[in-house]
Specification:
alpha+beta, Alpha-lytic protease prodomain-like, Alpha-Beta Plaits, 2 domains, 4-stranded mixed sheet, 8 helices, about 10% strand
Length: about 300
């Protein structure tokens, strides 16, 4: 006996957040262009690497906005789950591109150490100072709802960290301006590279796992099993499969072994209560197959 459950949760937070993501993307895109141009013109690797870092933010914000938009797309006969999975593929592609960019920054930094290039510390400090304002302002738009939605919290933390990175670049600019030590520029570039590599590696690993249908990081199979077994009428559970439909939605299928003699209404109530409980454990789409205690082997008819 199978049961399907689709839960669509539309909250005002999501629609407001859509606007916050758009503003964040516009502000950060404009700053990335400014930082790249200043970095090229004044030969600053610190600015160029920070611009690459901020470009990753724009991509991450765009990905989150895409996830919200795709969550509203309807399923078709060909794509029965809709287009949710494309958010995972976009995340994987984003991580791979970032790793390639990080390699480029590292190579350039080594060249700068071997062959120092004159750079303008004052300009570096001014441009990075603008970055602090842009990142702090962008983070502010997500502050109110950061504890209500995972993508929003991720965006807030990312932008807040970027404001700190920009502060580091400002410090580098001031030091270069007063000391004339050109090696500070590639050093800051390398430090930013390490920060990007650290954050990108986790994105790469998680998106690759989700592409291979691994259990999402925000889901604990053991906790789910324990909670389900606490439900009155549930004797056992097996054939549990949990995977990500998108970067924000998870699915699960499972076989429930129920007490003998339960009525259709009692079984329906158990499934309904379980699905409600699973929503609190980050499972939005559930399919159950139910079996009775005396009939739960592979060859038993359902």
């Amino acid at each position: 006996m199978a049961g399907e459950h689709h839960h669509h949760h539309h909250s005002p937070v999501i629609s407001n957040i859509g606007r916050a993501f758009q503003i964040g993307i516009i502000l950060n895109s404009a700053f990335v262009v400014l930082e790249f141009m200043a970095g090229f013109y004044y030969n600053s690797l610190a600015l160029l690497s920070d611009a690459g870092h901020n470009l990753s933010d724009v991509a991450a914000l765009g990905l989150s906005l895409l996830a919200f938009r795709l969550a509203k797309s309807k399923a078709t006969d060909k794509f029965t789950y809709g287009y949710h999975k494309s958010t995972i593929l976009a995340s994987l592609a984003n991580a791979v591109i970032l790793l390639i960019a990080v390699g480029g920054i590292g190579w350039e930094a080594i060249q700068r150490f071997l062959h120092p290039v004159e750079t303008q510390g004052g300009v570096i400090a001014i441009v990075a100072g603008i970055g602090i304002v842009i990142n702090a302002l962008s983070a502010f738009f997500f502050f109110k709802n950061k504890d209500k939605e995972l993508n929003t919290k991720s965006a807030y933390v990312h932008l807040a960290v970027d404001a700190l990175v920009s502060a580091g670049v400002v410090l580098a600019g001031i030091l270069i301006y007063y000391t004339g030590l050109t090696w500070i520029d590639p050093l800051i570039g390398l430090l930013i590279m390490v920060i990007v590599l650290y954050s990108t590696w986790s994105i790469l690993k998680e998106s690759l796992w989700l592409t291979l249908d691994a259990v999402p990081a925000n889901v604990d199979t053991k906790v789910i099993t324990e909670q389900m077994l606490k439900m009155h009428g549930v004797k056992d559970i097996h054939h549990i499969h949990i995977w990500a439909m998108s970067t924000t939605r998870n699915a699960m299928t499972a076989h429930l072994i129920l007490e003998n003699g339960l009525s259709e209404m009692q079984i329906a109530k158990i499934k309904s209560e379980l699905k409600h409980e699973l929503e609190h454990l980050n499972i939005q789409h559930v399919t159950f197959e139910t079996e009775s205690e005396n009939c739960h082997d592979e060859n038993c008819g359902h």
